[in-house]
Write a structure and sequence with these properties.
- The chain is built from 16 helices and 18 strands.
- The chain has three domains: about 140 residues, 4-hydroxy-3-methylbut-2-enyl diphosphate reductase, catalytic domain (Cobalt-precorrin-4 Transmethylase, domain 1, 3-Layer(aba) Sandwich), CATH 3.40.1010; about 90 residues, Rossmann fold (3-Layer(aba) Sandwich), CATH 3.40.50.11270; about 130 residues, Cobalt-precorrin-4 Transmethylase, domain 1 (3-Layer(aba) Sandwich), CATH 3.40.1010.20.
- It is α/β, with parallel strands linked by helices.
- The chain starts with a helix and ends with a helix.
């Protein structure tokens, strides 16, 4: 499928909108009430530090809603205002935050049901309104909705669209797209749908397996079994690892994406030599600025003396998980929670340790003076961060 041609056609449709409806002023008050926080603004103005009783709160200097998330949420609110009585669907969570998605459900916005891991569009009718979330949607989903005659409101983050353009360049030049991402993440599913031949690698270890195969060959069938869920149909490592372009899910850990890119560049340099490198390797910068800023701020925060780190965000939020990963690697006691209600009852917290299921930690706050670092993922409203701080300070005062 010529995805570029399809996108051009879709973008010119009178049933497609990616710029909003000019109703920003109408929804501004609702957004401010639901998501902003005077307390968080005050802490920012006071040098990202707040003290009460025995607790010093240290906020990361970049956290919470990014521009792409703000845009997506605002467009969703505008959509309901513009279509007050029409049925409105979202192909997935608008962003990975439970409170934001709950607010949309309260506005009578429905989410496409999923049965056995497969989305069921059977109830979506012609002239229904369908919102594409900040992560984007697969080209096949867009095609289905367009053919059905739906009104499509596209809130896809421009940084995600930039990655799609990159893998389309790979496809045009007959390069395989190696995508650093999580195979089942909505963004990676969407990105791979715009690629030609592709392979998804989760981390540096998987990238090393691929590079070892490029240099040394190996058991082709074992390779295909290992990456069965992470490759394009008909993928052949002997044929498709000769010309490689690197891209990424925008919420992955920046440092690892960069290292994976360097690893493939070194590997193809060894395999084909410097004179032929450009014929075998392509790299474009597809790291999201907001993701990078939040990770850089987290690295700065964990350089400070902290007794505890609290990371706030959806449990299925990739960028939030990577913030937690930074704290864990620094050896700082940390918890990842998605809502203030996870704190309590008593001096306990229900949290998600890295790579594990939810657990209850008790006691949560130790005795004595405490320096607590706090950050939040790009899908987390300031109002949620305020709620967490309030609960922590209340608990510490007992």
């Amino acid at each position: 499928m010529d995805t570029r041609a399809f996108k051009r056609s879709l973008h010119h449709s009178d049933r497609y909108n990616r710029r909003g409806f000019g109703r920003a002023d109408e929804v501004a008050a609702s957004l401010e009430e639901a998501y902003t926080s005077p307390l968080i603004q005050r802490i920012r103005e006071d040098g990202y530090q707040y003290r009460q009783g025995r607790v010093i709160i240290r906020l990361a200097q970049a956290f919470g809603f990014c521009w792409g998330v703000e845009r997506a949420v605002a467009m969703a609110y505008e959509t309901r205002r513009h279509y007050p009585s029409e049925r409105i669907w979202i192909t997935n969570e608008i962003i990975h935050n439970p409170s934001v998605n709950a607010h949309l459900r309260e506005m009578d916005v429905s989410f496409i049901p999923v049965d056995g891991g497969v989305k069921d569009f059977s109830e979506v009718l012609s002239n229904d309104v369908v919102i594409l979330p900040a992560f984007g949607a697969t080209v096949q989903e867009m095609q289905l909705l367009n053919e059905r005659g739906c009104h499509i409101v596209d809130t896809t983050c421009p940084w995600v669209s930039k990655v799609w353009n990159t893998v389309e360049k790979h496809k045009k030049e007959s390069f395989t797209s190696v995508i650093h991402g999580k195979v089942k993440h909505e963004e990676t599913l969407a990105t791979s749908s715009f690629a030609g031949t592709y392979l998804v690698v989760l981390d540096l270890a998987e990238a090393q397996i691929v590079c070892d195969y490029i240099l040394q060959g190996g058991d082709r069938e074992a390779f295909l079994r290992r990456f069965a869920a992470a490759t394009s149909p008909g993928f052949d490592p002997d044929r498709d690892l000769v010309r490689i372009g690197v891209a990424n899910q925008t919420t992955m850990l920046k440092s690892e994406t960069e290292e994976i890119g360097r690893l493939f560049e070194r590997t193809l340099l060894r395999r084909y030599g410097p004179a032929a490198l450009n014929e075998h390797f392509l790299a474009f910068n597809t790291i999201c600025d907001a993701t990078q800023e939040r990770q850089d701020a987290m690295f700065s925060l964990v350089d400070e003396p902290l007794d505890l780190m609290v990371v706030i965000g959806g449990y299925n939020s990739s960028n939030t998980t990577h913030l937690q990963e930074i704290a864990v690697h620094r050896g700082i006691p940390s918890v990842h929670i998605d809502a203030p209600e996870r704190i309590g009852p008593g001096n306990s917290v229900e949290h998600k340790p890295l790579g594990r299921d939810l657990e209850r930690l008790e006691p949560f706050l130790p005795e004595g003076e405490l320096r607590i670092g706090i950050t939040s993922g790009a899908s987390t409203p300031d109002r949620v961060v305020e709620g967490v701080i309030d609960r922590v300070l209340d608990l510490a005062s007992r």
